[in-house]
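Hi Prof. W.,

I finally got the 5-methylthioadenosine/S-adenosylhomocysteine deaminase prediction working! I wasn't sure whether to trim anything, so I left the full sequence exactly as given:
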Amino acid sequence: MTRPQYDMTVSARWMITVERDGEVLENHAIAIKNGRIEAIIPANQLTAISATQHVDLPHHVLMPGLINLHGHSAMTLLRGLADDKALMDWLNNHIWPAEGKHVHDDFVFDGALIAMAEMIRGGTTTINDMYFYHAAMARAGLASGMRTFVGCSILEFPTNYGANADDYISKSLAERREFLGEELVTFTLAPHAPYTVSDDTFRKVAMLAEQEDMLIHCHIHETADEVEGSLKERQQRPLARLKELGLLSPRLIAAHMVHLNDEEIELVARHGVSVAHNPASNMKLASGIAPVKKMLDAGVTVGIGTDGAASNNKLDMLADTRLTALLAKVGTLDPTAVPAATAIRMATLNGAKALGIDDKVGSIAIGKQADLIALDLSAIETAPTFDPISHVVYAVGREQVTHTWVKGETLLNNRVLTTLDEAALMTKAADWRNRILAR
Ligand SMILES: CSC[C@H]1O[C@@H](n2cnc3c(O)ncnc32)[C@H](O)[C@@H]1O
Ligand SMILES: [Zn+2]
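And this is what came out:
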């Protein structure tokens, strides 16, 4: 009898499937063909099948790849330029002036590749980004092999990329056309925030999203100042305004959502809006603590994002999954607010749901694409292991990520990047440091 033939099999000591909260398979293997998981079997049945390549992970946990639900990848090149500031001081007096001097295609391409090297080494397989120069971002995504959502920024004021909202929109749609056939690249509409986008533009974005079947990605209710500013200027809270303008729908991924009352949480749940929670950025910019437990209890899909490297200052989804669990506990004084298994689901399947790709990725299941990561738990820092779910959330560091796969392609092999040249990127980073310091 001929044995079933696969491209790759991976066996692991533990497998966190995320199919059911808390499910851990011990000593199991998966078989992958054409980038898809075709079988999940006890490791002792591996002899019954054959594969071109086998990866044995005897001390490792295998789990779905992490989904970074909110980021600005190219901002790695501005990391550490302005720390210890509140959001509007940080943006108005530091980040926007620096972006005005430096942000062009080459900045976005190089900065995004540096971000992707960091993310792949930390177990992130999907990035939901928003920035400028989208063809450069998409090219970086294709070069790295990451699943890349390219958010097309829309603002009312001019930047190097666009003159006004209509200009941002038309340039973005033109850049999108070039990548429409690429499975791993998806363009989204990214109106920056309620305080930088007009009513007319928000209406256009809502219509365009329907016409073109696109997601919308926007910073919303990030700070108390944003909510108060809107009340002062328009006698309306930003979310109420966005509801009137037709923005609230399952297409919308709302980044931050820190300052919400109970009615707003209900509204967001009713309209199927997803939320990208950014605990590190919210802590560093002193924006506040998002009501994550209340949102989850109301049925909102809440995923996790890092935000940019200039406000985090890491692109470390494992660290921010830990922060998600810890911050929810301290914010509610309830140790059960976000348990470990919930935090893992937020960083994987919830991100996939928000992006509308949970039929493809976000958990380990037959038929899903092989976006997977492996972490080596044999380090002293994670010995002994009683519960791998606990270790992944509370004890591991990203240096324990050994392998990262997207659609069955190896992006990280025993901690070595396979698609990106780390040494060349180090040189690029040094060049950018000199250019930025020179201006
Ligand atoms: C439209 S995305 C690009 C734009 O957003 C800026 N930005 C980065 N992080 C944040 C944040 O947390 N809140 C608001 N705006 C942010 C970034 O610098 C770009 O100018
Ligand atoms: Zn952001």
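The chain has a mean pLDDT of 98. Does that look reasonable to you?

Thanks,
D.
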